[in-house]
Structures are given as structure tokens and as C-alpha cells.
Amino acid sequence: MTDTLEKSVETADGVAVSAAPKRLFIKTYGCQMNVYDSERMADVLRPLGYATTDAPEGADFVILNTCHIRERAAEKVYSELGKLKQMRERKLARGDGGMTIAVAGCVAQAEGEEIMKRQPAVDLVVGPQAYHQLPELLTRTARARGERIGADFAPHEKFDALTPDMIRARGGDGPTAFLTVQEGCDKFCTFCVVPYTRGAEWSRPAAAVLAEARALADRGVREVTLLGQNVNAYDGEGPDGKPWTLARLAYALAEIPGLDRIRYTTSHANDMSDDLIAAHADLDALMPYLHLPVQAGSDRVLRLMNRKHGRQKYIDLIARIREARSDMAIAGDFIVGFPGETDRDFEDTLDLVRQVTYAGAFSFVYSPRPGTPAATMPGQIEEKVGLERLQRLQALLFEQQTAFNAAQAGKTLNVLFEKKGRYAGQAIGRSPYLQAVHVEAADHLLGRIVPVEIISGAQNSLNGRLASANPI
């Protein structure tokens, strides 16, 4: 989507600049929180006249919003930076002006100084808590003076820079939206860099979250996904000055007119509280789909991972959740080939998967992240062994996912239509269980929730037909 603005504005240091339309390209790596952050970067740059574009060619400002979770993440960024450097040189040679290049996100936070040394073409490095500084840093860089790195932890400041008017001015991006409510993590899983790149757990005040949610609803958003590295650890300040839980926040969000669906991700088993489980039983708006990573099914490996819960606690927790909401679909995360994982440990993971049954999952071979305890643990697993285990695990997970989708055939599900499909008249929406649903002759229902009779289910999606002409 592209947009334009033409007006004179003042930058953060009070200097008036011309805001003739300029082109902004943001490439987003990694999780939904990075998607959310990219949208907020576009928000804070919009008053300076930056309109988003779908390709870096010809862009005046390019931001790589990076993720540091996976191995070789930084190398992918450097490869992309090399391409952008050449693109900028060609742009300058044609007389088309320059291109400002920025690296944002977790790689920026972890390797800021190194990025500037290794790739001088980079103009700005901005950590995930500092994107609100972009207008000021951009202005300073344009004048070839001042600091170029903004990577200090101050999460509340970046949200303070976001106003409801910015959200409403963003224009229609569809009926769904991400909404960050919590950042950082205090769990210190031995394989994870998040505590080092995103900082300690911090929750936005409930009033700020509700104000953003109302602005989204005013813009036509029907479904919000609450985001956090540890989202169910949310304890933002409520209007009464006391901390709210995620459950209490969900109840308040469900009262907002027009906001019909609420999801949240990603959760930790230790923070799945009684009131949040009860909220799933009480609130129709809280969708029956829960992403609750376990990572492994072996108690020994879970201890090595510092997950702070055992396999039986997790299995019992799933049983309690399904007792509260019988149709709850569970998704998970799994890491195989963790240092020291034996064949017996891996079999314990397969056994846990069979007991829980998953509607979806993300699964990976362990890859060491520099600076994390697991990277130097003894018993590093050969890549070949890890890949063999991953293939076995994924075969089981895919079988369960396909079976879950196939079991929807014959049911009528409320589907929120999000976008047009590949074929004329076709529309694609999401079921309450987050499945993609393809329906013919439904493209006039975008943004609406409509009963759909499910005809069939495949591994990754459902096919259906309209069961009613009356949207919800």
C-alpha cells in the first residue's frame, strides 16, 4: 500500500522541512512484533512526508527491520545491505538523488557498532526501543552531524510517540491488526537472545492500549492480535493505578464497539494464569486458538533450556484450558537437536505431541546464538541428526494439523474475510482457529464476519461456501 502527504512540518529539533512526498521502503524480518514495529516506523515518518512503497528501487529511505533469533540472521542483513549499497550508487549515478539506509530491530540492538564499522553505507542504526527517534536521527543524518545510533532501552518512549490520530490517518489496511502490549522477557531461556535484544519485561499502560484499540476499531479493524515476547506476563498499569492482567485487558477490549475478535501471542506456560483461562470460557471475542510454546517434551531438556516448567505441568495446563474451552485449538513451538538431547529425549517430545495434539506448530533444528548459554553447552548435536529428528517431528505435526483441518468439514464457522483470493470473486478469511478459509463469490464481504459452511480441509487451509447472506 502506498500513500502520500504534501505539507510543511517541523522535525524533532524544530527545523521546518519540506514534506514533498518521499518514498519509504521497510523490509521486515521475523516475528509479528517486528511487523508491528515496522508499521509504527511508517507512522512516525509519515508527518515528514514519507509514503510507503513496495520495493526498495527508487526509495529515498530504506529500513531493514531485523530479527536476531535465527542463526545467520546478521549475515542475511549484511548481504541485503550490500545490495542496497549498489542500488544507492546506481541511483546517484542516474541523478535520482540519494538513499538513506537504516538498520533497525534486534540485530541493530545486538550489533549496532559492528554494523556501522562493517558496512559504512549504513546511515542509521536504531534498536527496537528507539524507533520514535527516527525523525530526529534522520534529520541529523541529512545534515551530516550528530549521533547516528539510537539503541538505548526506553520502551515507553516509543509508544508515547504514537497517537490515535496517527493510527486513524494510516488508512485502511484491512480488518485485522497487530497491537503490541508487552515487550521484553525475564525468562532467560538458554537458547534465546530476546532478553538481551529487547530488554526486561515491560507492559504498556492499559489506557494506552485501549486508546490504540479504539482508534483501530474506528478505522474498521474487527480483530486485534495482542503482541508480546511474553504477552501473558502482561501487567500494565490500569486506570486505578494498579496492574492489570492480560485477562482483565481482554475483558476491557471486548467492550469496544466494532472490535469482535481478540487473539494474543506469544505466551509462556508459566504465565498462563487462572483468570486468563477463565476469560477464554467467558469471552466470545477471545478466539479459541492459543499459541503456547513448549519447545521440548523431555524434562531433562526443558531444564537445560531453563524453561521453568516440566512436561507434566504443560500437559496438565493444556487439559485445564480445554476444560474451560472445549474447542480450543493449540499451537506450539519446538526445538530439536538441543545440546545434549538424546534419542530418548526426542522420543519424549514426540510422545508429548501425541498427547496434546496440535492444530499448528513452528519447529526448528537448534541453532546457536552467540552470547546465549546454550551456544557453549557441551553435547552439541550434529546437524544431520537434528535434521532427521526435525523431519520426524514435522511429519507428526503436519499429520495432526491436516487432521484438525479435515475435521472442520461439515461445520459452520464464522469467517472474517480479509482479502481477495487468487480467482475472480474469491475471498480469503480466517476461521476462529486462525485457519485460512477460501470461499467463492465472497469478495463483496471483505471486512465482514460471515457464517461459512466448510466443505473440506487440507493441510494449510479450508474450503467453504457461504452459509448465510447476512454478515455479522
Which properties best describe this structure?
472 residues; alpha/beta; six-stranded parallel beta sheet; five-stranded mixed beta barrel; 14 helices; disordered N terminus
Question: Secondary-structure map with pairings?
Answer:
Elements: E1 8-10, E2 16-18, E3 22-28, H1 32-45, E4 50-52, E5 61-66, H2 73-93, E6 100-105, H3 106-118, E7 124-126, H4 134-142, E8 149-150, H5 155-160, H6 164-169, E9 176-180, E10 182-183, H7 194-197, E11 202-203, H8 206-218, E12 223-227, H9 246-253, E13 261-265, H10 274-282, E14 289-291, H11 299-305, H12 311-324, E15 329-336, H13 343-356, E16 360-365, H14 383-406, E17 412-420, E18 427-430, E19 436-439, E20 449-457, E21 461-466
Parallel strand pairs: 3-4, 3-5, 5-6, 6-7, 7-8, 9-12, 12-13, 14-15, 15-16, 19-21
Antiparallel strand pairs: 1-2, 10-11, 17-18, 17-20, 18-19, 20-21
Helix pairs in contact: 9-10, 13-14
Describe the structure.
The structure is a single chain. The protein has 472 residues and is α/β, with parallel strands linked by helices. It is 34% helix and 21% strand. It has a six-stranded parallel β-sheet, with helices on both faces. Helix 13 links the parallel strand 15 and strand 16. The two termini are 27 Å apart. It catalyses: N(6)-dimethylallyladenosine(37) in tRNA + (sulfur carrier)-SH + AH2 + 2 S-adenosyl-L-methionine = 2-methylsulfanyl-N(6)-dimethylallyladenosine(37) in tRNA + (sulfur carrier)-H + 5'-deoxyadenosine + L-methionine + A + S-adenosyl-L-homocysteine + 2 H(+). Its EC number is 2.8.4.3. Monomer.
